[in-house]
Model the fold of this input.
Amino acid sequence: MLIIPLSHESGEVQRLPYITLGIIVLNLLLFVVTSFVEPMRREVFIEQETKLTRYYTDHLYLDIPQETFRKLSPGSQARIAFMKGPDSPPPFQEEELDEEEWERRQEEDERMRDLLEEMGVSVPSAEAERTSLTQEGKQAKQAELNRHVEDFEAAYENIFYRKYGYIPSRGGFLTVISSMFLHGGILHILFNMFFLYLSGCQIEDLWGRAVFPVFYLVAGMLAGLSHGLMVPESAAPCIGASGAVAAVMGAFMIRLYKTKIYFFYAYFFFTKFRRGTFHAPAYVMLPLWLAEQLLEALKSADVGSGVAFWAHIGGFAFGAGVATLFKVTGFEEKFIAPAIERKTNLVDENFSSGMEKLRQGDMAGAAEDLRKALENDPDNPIVHSELSKIYCKQGEKKGAVLELKRAVNLYMKQGLTESAVDDYLEIRSAFPDIVLDPLVQMTLIEAIEAREMYPEAATACKSLFSHCQRQTETKDGPEAVRALTRYGDICLHRLQQPRHAFKAYKTLLESCKYLTSDQKRNLKAKAQEAVKAAKNGAKQITLKQKEPAIQKDAEKTGSIRRPRPDIPLKKKIRIIQEVRTPEKYEVKTVAPYQTNKVLSADGGMDMKRPSELPVLFRDIFLICVFEIEKGPSVMYADLFVGGKTRPYRILSNRIIYSEFLKKSTTSSFENFRLFILHTISETDSVYLDQETMTFLKTKKTKVFPTPEDVGSHEKNLWKQLMGEVRFQCEMCYEVYWIDGRKVPKKGAKTTCKKCGQGVFVRPAHYAS
Done:
């Protein structure tokens, strides 16, 4: 049976895990280098072994060191034993042979010797050659053999894995470290690096880039020493990062024990191949893996193994122990987490304190801190933006406009046009006549038009033209012409106000002295188009004046539906309490869809999510408003749509309020509250949790410690509502909610309890 982890749910990290990725890249690079160097050194070793074996078999009367003989390959040892003859057992045989095995080998040697004699090949006797040489000759031959032995020993020790791998019987501090970065095959390194990637990124993110590499190196060294402690006489080199990786897995088990890991499995069952996936928490699967390693280590004590199981066990135990120590002593919470937060927090401390004071209503203190923040970072557009909003709330128009200009210019330099537009629209709502640099304002106007905010774009064009008219150097300049021409185009093509467009074109033709012939021709053509559009508009007005009589006749005949009455807001709101009793519907997760920017759409809101359709107001079942203690200083609203377990999460700083509110305020907090009220007003009926209702009444939001707490709260709510069906009486507009499981596929008929009108209930597509 094969079980391989694929991923886990804790995949997101705050910072790019440079250390983990660097270790992976370093191991891969060393593996590539090793794949070239190791074969060359292995070839040198084989060459020296061949020379030594050949010379010794030609001079069997000489003496070869026992340790050198043991290092020879089994083939070379067998060749020497054969050449020494059946009467001479192998000189340094390590295994004890019984009498039967010894006799069998002697018989094989006799048959081989007879075969060689039949072929005419004579096998010299070691004793005959020994007696034929003088003492000086024997010493010369022995010296030559000793040189071959030295060359062989040097080549043997120079084998790449033996030189840099950790050999327990040899020891060596440096080889304990170097062995962590060597791997013996492609599968060996791929599995080790994959396991390191799965667990190391999260541990590095939690423990930081200073603690993690120290932990990794120490863990790898102790893992290797654990292997050496259990098999101290082993002469086999121990290589690989598996001991250090096991330590990271041990830390992962303690620190992220609830994390669900996703696995792939495959096995044969009665000649049938089965495969699939499943998920299980870390506190279940990682101890099982450790138990498997312990079992394999105990088995390998008898049969031997090429895997250093004790290194895995020692590394895992060390990693789990360090994580437990950090948790018990609070070391991570007291020292590591604050240090990481200081490094990851890219916001100036003065800016953070200023924003906190702003939330508390201390305008003067917030402005003072933000001015200090500008001393450290004068090119930060966000600080200028927030400072302009504070001046705006204090009624200081000059300071607000000055800081807005600085913020917009910096945003434009950084290519953040959308942020510049947001700030411009917010400040302009308080000071409608503000004007920025003409070129900058025209760029903003184009961006506002792209948002389809045509009234705002037209007003900005008119303000720019008026500003240019007040100054002699720009009165008839190209900026003034461009601004008023743009104003006319918007009125004509976007706002259906041809009279205003004609007036703008006429003003340019009569007052501007420096128009080119092409500009005059284009303006005259546009003016004629505006006149034609105005005439067509007059005809439409005449037809509309006749519509009330047509509408009245249609209502009498029942051919059209009456307009929906204005239902009071409080009648649309239903409160749902968080309960933990058995729920009607199973909800496994409420992981939200994060929205990018919230714009108005036909009958709903466009979340600017790729491949996601706009969310219609009529489909919203539940709204939850909250804040997160450890998150950014914004408010959130989770909108649940029928049948979808995952809500759409809206951030208060990503809503284009001018598209939803007729008149926005200078307070982003109040704008967010008005936006929620507007959303409720556009629905037929909607559920709120008690915390959201409190927010609407008292303007105090519920603060959850972590996103997980938010998910737990919303899961308990949504389990009660997900499968409900909402329908409305077409006569009196009374709203009903029923269990979606009770509605047949073909629908069902019922009667409105308020007016008695028959109602046909359809099984909505979002009913469970």
